[in-house]
Amino acid sequence: MRAGPVLWRLAALVLLLVFITKPQLFAFVFEPLTINNAPAIYNQGSLFSLTLAHLGTVFSAALASTIIAVTLGIFVTRPSGLEFLALSRSLVNIGQTFPPIAVLAIAVPLVGFGEKPTLIALFLYGLLPIFENTLSGLTQVSPLTLEAAKGMGMSPRRRLIEVELPLALPVILAGIRLSVVINLGTATIGSTVAAKGLGEVIIAGLQSNNMAFILQGGLVVALLAVLISDALMSVERFAARKLGQAPS
Amino acid sequence: MIEIEHLTKRFGETIVVDDVSLTVDEGTIAVFVGTSGAGKSTLLRMINRLIEPSSGRVLIDGQDTMAIPEDDLRHRIGYVIQGYGLFPHRTVIENIATVPRLLGWDAKRIAARVEELLDLFQLDSAEFAAKYPHELSGGQQQRVGVARALAAKPALLLMDEPFGALDPVIRHKAQEDLLAIQRRLGTTIMLVTHDMDEAFHLGDRIAVMDQARLLQYATPAELLTRPAEEFVERLVGTAERPFRLLSLARVKDAIEPGPSQGEPLPVSATLREALSQLVWTGRESLPVTDASGAILGRISIDGILAHGRQPA
Predict the structure, then answer these.
(1) Where does the pLDDT of residue A3 fall: very low under 50, low under 70, confident under 90, or very high at 90 and above?
(2) Rounded to a whole number, what is the distance in Å from the CA of A241 to chain B's nearest CA?
(3) Where are the alpha helices (DSSP H) in chain B?
(4) A20, A61, B111, B311: which has the fewest C-beta neighbours closer than 10 Å?
(5) Domain A48-242 is in which class?
(6) Do B71 and A154 touch (CB under 8 A)?
(7) B88–A150: do the CB atoms touch at under 8 Å?
(8) Which helix (H) or strand (E) holds B266?
(9) Using a CB-CB distance cutoff of 8 angstroms, which residues of chain A are in contact with residue B134?
(10) Domain layout of chain A by residue ranges
């Protein structure tokens, strides 16, 4: 990787960290956006703890999505699970097509307000990219490699763990990255059902007609998404390089 | 010794391998030739049970392969395919160590064996050990593929078009190397190819297959002089016949007493090489020497041609 982009990312990270820990330093930037002497910086909670809560929600949901989607992807590519492929696909597709806000509406009466309905919505929404990428990662492993592995007497379990999964890893990681990035944005709606997160800042801005708040919440989420996507992409590149695939 | 008895494979209505029986002696190379779709690869894959036979059986040193758990069986049989199927995420060393690792050898024994194989296949371990397959040339990949198949010292090596992906120059070298290694280790080899030159070059015996049936299983010379069916005759190539016969015989088979002039030929050369040397230098005969350089006699065009003639 060249030095330029790395420096830019480092600068963005530093900016983000300073902003969420000492937002008052940036008050002068946001003041022009306020009207009637409204506060320029979100004052109903610490941006830092909201960011942590936001990340916590997104990563817990991503972890759950990854475990379920990868397990499902492995199962339906085994001979014994092949017949469930179509069924699993449509289930996962429903998870993606069903709007997260509708999931919240259904989940709140069942599990109450707070983080739980948000986790459910994000979990369902994040399944599809991971599942589809697990499928394509596993099915694109060269049949020659698998034939050789089988011919040398590797058991199906060993073939999966030692050959198929390592070779599918870059593609699976890309699916996880996609899912995380989508959900970093989507998680903001959790604040409508009282989940702690950066959505709070945006919603507070909408309610009090304070453009400065909306912008702050949006910018922090956007910066997080860019930085995390970048970080995960370099993990993918590292994994792909180990396989001798051209870094993309 | 490998005994194949009435081996048959049906996929639904289609018969892919039809009642094939043959025996491969210990330490010899049996080559399977035929048109594509003749059933050669299927036959090979039934030996390590990548394909389960519909009927018939395979005995390795008298033991029925169906009585051995399939992974155990495959640990004992080396397997090389066209394209080799090296693990792209593993280094040369890790690739070669695959079967010993599956067998649970200790690290020291594995390292020693890998070192031995790298040496045998002329791969400098300092240079190649830590490389990944995509960093190797085609010829190097092929050598790693064969080394990996031989890692756990299998008594039998199955090879399905092992040289198919190599260019002609490297292919010839790879065949020579395989022959040298086979002679040194005494491994029994069953090899599938559609290249007749390769078959005559490598095979102690050649099995000709067509439309799922085994037409003839014989020594290369027999195949040329007594083809069992017209298909065999066509496959070995009528125009190539005398030259193939000449490449099977050595100068020592046609040596005659008497003096001669010119660049001497080694007694170990094939008659085809001798003939080509005679034609090229425009001589009627050339002297023959043994490995130490002593003159043993001479070889003449007439003497060579007699060996390429159709037997009476």
Answers:
(1) low
(2) 9
(3) 40-47, 70-75, 92-96, 98-102, 107-120, 125-128, 138-150, 168-185, 196-202, 220-225, 230-236, 241-248, 271-281, 301-307
(4) B311
(5) mainly alpha
(6) yes
(7) no
(8) strand B265-266
(9) 244
(10) 48-242
Name the 3-class secondary structure at A221.
Answer: helix
Whether B159 and chain A come into contact, CB under 8 Å, resolves to no
Kindly list the domain boundaries of chain B, sorted by start residue: 2-237, 244-307
Q: Are B151 and B99 contacting, i.e. CB atoms less than 8 angstroms apart?
A: yes
State chain A's mean pLDDT as an integer: 89
Q: Is B187 helix (H, G, I), strand (E, B) or coil?
A: coil
Query: In CATH, what number does B2-237 get?
Result: 3.40.50.300
Nearest to B247 by CA among B159, B172, B184, B169: B172
User: Which residues does chain A have within 8 Å of residue B88's beta carbon, measured at their own beta carbons?
Assistant: 142, 145, 167, 243-245
Q: Show residues of chain A in contact with B48, CB under 8 Å.
A: 151
CATH of domain B244-307: 3.90.1280.20
How many angstroms separate the CA atoms of A12 and A2, rounded? 16
B71, B81, B135, best to mutate vs chain A, most A CBs in 10 Å: B71
DSSP B90-147: S-HHHHHTHHHHHTT--HHHHHHHHHHHHHHTT--HHHHTT--GGGS-HHHHHHHHHH
**Best CA proximity match to B30, nearest among B237, B224, B217:** B217
User: What are the residue ranges in chain B where pLDDT is below 50?
Assistant: none
pLDDT per residue over A125-150, tens digit each?
999 999 999 999 999 999 999 999 99
Partners of A238 on chain B (C-beta within 8 Å) are: none
Q: Mean pLDDT throughout A182-200? A: 90
pLDDT in tens, B77-99: 999 998 899 999 999 999 999 99
A162: DSSP letter: I
A19-54 pLDDT per residue, tens: 888 888 888 888 888 887 788 888 888 899 999 999
- What pLDDT was estimated at residue A246? 45
Q: Which residues of A touch B83 (CB under 8 A)?
A: 144
